[in-house]
Every structure is written in structure tokens, then in C-alpha cells.
Write a structure and sequence with these properties.
Helix content is about 25%, strand content about 35%. It has about 260 residues and is α+β, with helices and mostly antiparallel strands. The protein has 2 domains: about 200 residues, Bira Bifunctional Protein, Domain 2 (BirA Bifunctional Protein, domain 2, 2-Layer Sandwich), CATH 3.30.930; about 40 residues, Roll (SH3 type barrels), CATH 2.30.30.100. Strands 1-2-3-4-8-7-6-5 form an 8-stranded mixed beta sheet, with helices on both faces.
């Protein structure tokens, strides 16, 4: 029987379109294919598995059947000057959706900019990518991977999954909760001053806030007390000499990692 891959309203977010696939190389890559072909955006693509999943900085992302792999295509998201805030918007939405799907309250903590942790172990990954299309439109894709029923045993970071934590959450249920939460978060973000609410919600779940952390940037490794997020979501470190450093991009490491 031929599978119907046509678009339909997204479960949990009927104002968005939804395409479901059994297996793809990468849901992010497929979203960009749709964008280059002229798609208007607001499109979710979910796959049962990925054969070429990837994370931040080109790292591989393990993508076995049963976990959630989904990406959202946005075209010319507004306000354009604040697109850099979207990783934190996505993180807050995913954290809320885990609670919604699992029936928990603040199960996860957030590691800057958008990793979800449970007792220090990584539960999910978020990859945001952007591309200027040939017709001048900007395509932004937010990819999500959530360990619902399994996690890789050997990774750069300790990992976990919802089943191992005692929660029976299917990829379908996780996706519906995510689509609903992200729709609400994006609507709030678009409002004047909307990111301040996102920032506060992110900080309410922040891992190691007020404690010493290290950040590896492209040029150096910096240590200091995780003091705050600035108004644009950048990491603020307080250093031993009393000075303050603002980090715009980098990998965060906690003591012992």
C-alpha cells in the first residue's frame, strides 16, 4: 500500500502544516528542500527515523525508531532582528511539552542555549539553521530530537530517555505536545517585549545558575559564575576579578564533564 505523505494540519497546532515520513536522511535537510522549492513555511516534518541525523557543530545525532525527530520550517520569521532568540524560545517550548506529555512539573532543566537535562543527563537536542533562499526569502529550520524510548550509550555527554526515567511517552504524543507549545511560544515571542517572558521562563529552569561553569568558544575556554542571561539571551559570566563576560556562542561544560 502506498503511504500518503501529503500535508495536513499539524496535530496540536492546526495553524501549521504537517508532513510525516517513515524514514528520512534529516528532517532539517528535508525542510530546506521544501523551502528551496518555494514552500511558504509553517511546515512541520516528522520522521519515524533519521539516517543522517545531526546536532550542533555537525555532530552526529543518534536517530533510532521510537524517538522523536521533527523539524519546523519558518519563512521570514518576524521580528527578523531577533531571530537569534529562537533557540531559547524552542528550548522553553520543548521543556514545557515534556511536562505536558509526561504529566510532570519541571522535570527538565535547561543548559545554555537549548539542551534539556534530567539529573544532568541529556534528554534532547535542538538544532536551528538558517539559509537565504535564491528568491531573497530567509528560511529558518528548528530541528528537535527527543529520546522517548532509548538513548545512545556512549556520547560526548551523559544521556537519558523518558522510558528509562519511568515515563511512557510515544513520539506521536511528544510531537503533539511540542507543536502546541511551540505555536504558543512563537506567538508570544512575536509580541513587543515577548522575549522577556521567554527569558524568565528559561532562567526558571536553568541548570547551574549561580554556579561556576566553563564555556568553550571558537577561540578560548572561559570559566566563571553563570550569573544571568542578557536581554537577547546571551550567557553572562561573572569572573573572579569581578568583571563580567557576555558569551554569544559556545559549548557549556559543568564541573566534572
Amino acid at each position: 500500500m502506498t503511504r500518503d505523505y501529503s500535508e495536513r494540519p499539524a496535530p496540536g497546532a492546526p495553524d501549521f502544516l504537517f508532513e510525516e515520513r517513515d524514514s528520512v536522511g534529516s528532517t532539517n535537510a528535508l525542510c530546506f528542500e521544501r523551502a528551496r522549492a518555494g514552500h511558504a513555511g509553517n511546515l512541520w516534518i516528522r520522521a519515524g527515523e533519521q539516517t543522517e541525523g545531526r546536532g550542533r557543530r555537525g555532530r552526529d545525532w543518534s536517530s533510532p525508531v521510537g524517538n522523536l525527530f521533527a523539524s519546523l520550517l519558518l519563512i521570514d520569521p518576524k521580528p527578523v532582528e531577533r531571530i537569534g532568540e529562537l533557540p531559547l524560545v524552542a528550548a522553553v517550548a520543548l521543556a514545557e511539552s515534556v511536562d505536558k506529555a509526561a504529566g510532570t512539573l519541571h522535570l527538565v532543566q535547561l543548559k545554555w542555549p537549548n539542551d534539556l537535562l534530567v539529573d544532568g543527563a541529556k534528554l534532547s537536542g535542538i538544532l536551528l539553521e538558517a539559509e537565504l533562499l535564491a528568491d531573497g526569502r530567509q528560511a529558518v529550520v528548528i530541528g528537535f530530537g527527543v529520546n522517548c524510548i532509548s538513548h545512545p550509550p556512549l556520547t560526548m555527554y551523559q544521556a537519558t530517555d523518558l522510558r528509562s526515567l519511568g515515563f511512557n511517552v510515544s513520539a506521536e504524543r511528544m510531537f503533539e505536545a511540542l507543536a502546541s507549545s511551540l505555536s504558543s511560544q512563537l506567538e508570544g515571542w512575536r509580541q513587543q517585549g515577548g522575549f522577556e517572558t521567554t527569558r524568565k521562563n528559561w532562567l526558571n529552569r536553568a541548570a547551574h545558575l549561580g554556579k561556576v561553569i566553563s564555556v568553550k568558544t571558537a577561540r578560548e575556554e572561559i570559566s566563571g559564575i553563570f550569573a544571568d542571561l542578557d536581554a537577547r539571551g546571551h550567557l553572562v559570566l561573572k569572573q573572579e576579578d569581578g568583571g563580567v563576560r557576555t558569551i554569544y556562542a559556545g559549548d557549556v561544560f559543568f564541573p566534572g564533564e
